[in-house]
Amino acid sequence: MDLSIQIPDAPDVLHSFLPLFRVFKDGRVERFSQTPFTPPSDSEDPNAVTGGVRSKGIVISPENKVGARLFLPKTIKPDEKRPLLIYIHGGAFAIESAFSIQYHNYVSSLVAEANIIAVSVEYRLAPEHPVPACYDDSWAVINWVTAHAKDRQGPDLWINNHADFTKVFFSGDSAGGNIAHNMAVRAGQDGLGDGVKLEGVILMHPFFGDGKPNKLWELICSDFKGWEDPRLNPMAHPGSLSSLVCGKILICISEKDIIRESGQLYYEALKKSGWKGELDLVDIEEEGHVFHLLNPDCHRAGVLMRRVVSFLRG
């Protein structure tokens, strides 16, 4: 995304973060990037993407319009249990969707390549729904999913029949990587329930603060707590990093990513924190932010996919 784009503000604009959105004095929000809906593959739409993977939508909190898209390999056998990935999309907390073509295709590809099942989280977007809405919504989806582990009598048969709750993974890209980290922190604080184990976390080009003012964060927070807020800048809280309950973490960055430093700082802070898990860093040369979503068929996207699949299978 070209952050140098110039869009003149109208006199009735209250505040803006270009080129993502601007908020007018009457409360209207104008986004400069639209996210067309892509149907799940189990729908009757002939254009729905399949790729050997079934998918369907789930409404989890109707009042908040919080939901998810579930993904299941078509070749899975009855009652076969597979690792469970909970994926959280990026988009600066303000754009994109689990139901967009990019995220539908990417999660479908992960499911097909790694032979796992996945839940892609649809959370409310800022600025209409400021932080902490994205965290609360993601945690609500996680709780809904892990509640199936208690007696395998949850509301969704795919999860009841096929989720291996001893091999749960959180992942996300950009702002979704930030949310995934914070969900891992909350899992350590509040637990995921009996029989559920957070095996690993994958952070793809994650967004974090560095202790300096960040206009986006200031605009989208309803409970602004400064630049050392652990949700924004976990590197300033080594005790929280050292207590992460997962067994392994994979951090993915790329050479030309405009927020490359976020992942690097997180990696270094986690190494120094005393965390006892397995930590790995993947650094892809010559590529920019979320290139694997924008150009999924390129060679380096394939390299990154293989590293992520290996992490999920290992």
TrEMBL record:
Xref: Pfam families: Abhydrolase_3 (PF07859)
> Which stretches make up the Alpha/beta hydrolase fold-3 domain?
85-292
Q: Which domain of life is it from?
A: Eukaryota
Q: Which GO terms describe its molecular function?
A: hydrolase activity
What InterPro entries is this protein classified in? AB_hydrolase_3, AB_hydrolase_fold, Carboxylest/Gibb_receptor, Lipase_GDXG_put_SER_AS
Active site positions, chain numbering: S174
**Signal sequence extent:** none
Q: Which family does it belong to?
A: Belongs to the 'GDXG' lipolytic enzyme family.
| Protein name, as recorded | 2-hydroxyisoflavanone dehydratase-like
PROSITE patterns, alphabetized: LIPASE_GDXG_SER
